[in-house]
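Write out this protein's structure.
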Amino acid sequence: MAIAVPNTSPTSTSVAEPSASYTGPLMVVTTLFFMWGAITSLNDVLIPHFQQVFNLKLAVSMLVQTAFFSAYFVFSIPSARIIDWLGYQRAMVVGLLTMGSGALLFVPAAKVPSFGLFLTALIILAAGITLLQVAANPYVTVLGSPRTASSRLNLTQAFNSLGTTVAPWIGGLFILSAAAVAASDPALQAASVIKPYVFLAVTLALLAILIGSFKLPKIESAQHHIGEKVSDSIWHHPNLIFGAIAIFVYVGAEVSIGSSIANYLALDNIGRFVSASSVPDAAHRYQEALRVAAKYISLYWGGAMVGRFIGSAVLQRLKTGPVLAFCAVMAGMLVITSVFSNGALAMWSILLVGFFNSIMFPSIFTLGVAELGALTGDGSGVMIMAIVGGAAIPWVVGKTADLINTRSYGGAIWGQGLHFALIVPTLCYLYILFFALSGSKPNSERAGT
């Protein structure tokens, strides 16, 4: 996830020297967007993996996302305080090192193996990402001229989507494929996560050294320090409050769909990857189809990457609000199409939602923190805290699917419950439509100035 800035915003906070070159700093910070995108989307691979290792139902396996995204709610405001204390750059370093600690905890969790310890590792990992997001999002927003911010930040966030695109494919290859070889031994299945997450821990440590040693410009106008008096309050900006709710439902919808894709496409009437004639047993057929379906997760996130490159050009010419409204309508219609169809139409319509999700987080975030000035960092903390929607709404989708499966399919996860439960994200897109058309207006527009 990343952010973009409206192309016309006279009140936007930015660096005072528009002639300065920020290419180097932006390139360095872009690596952060790539890393947290990759790690976040790996959860979509962990969910079907843990279902097999620990024999979990859909709602319980969604605790992966509940644990991960709950960290945003718990650690976002403390992260804003850390930024006030340490500044943006050092906060990024602390975030990277915290992420590395969480990744290393996957080793003992796999050795036990323990689902609870895995969830603990995910919470620590997400705590680091939370600090990184609270620091990097507003930092990139104000780094440079507002005139080119929309194009610059959409291009930057496209690398976040590159991470979400590449990671599920690699995760499916190294985690699910390795686990399939050791299908008869849960301990060996669990151990398939060790190498990928140790690699991530080492990479994060190296990246922390790089960020710490690089001379990044300070953005004094977009932060305040401990003990400094500020005459404004974040609660005096309705666009921030409405924006936080929009972030909650957007992330919930995006994660619900991304987390469900492998299980959704593995259904006989959706992906049709394994025929009943070749594998007669429905449960076994579903497990075989999961390994194929997991590869399609990358297409969902890849659509977001392509959409962000396109959005970089579109948002240079069009206002952010109308573009966000259009994308919300299209995403909602695609979900409805998928829920009420089967086969290729259902499959490709749900995958295409990723394309229209592309500019939503950046647009919501930017519209939400508009006109906050020195409170930008604190407002960012509130917005990032709302990412907890990724913890709540996927669980609701999973629980709904389980209830349908229990009633009609004897509790099997390969029932059609998930097919119908995915209608939940359409409600999220309806709220985003409201925010785009009305809730996103900053105080200057609400006052009629």
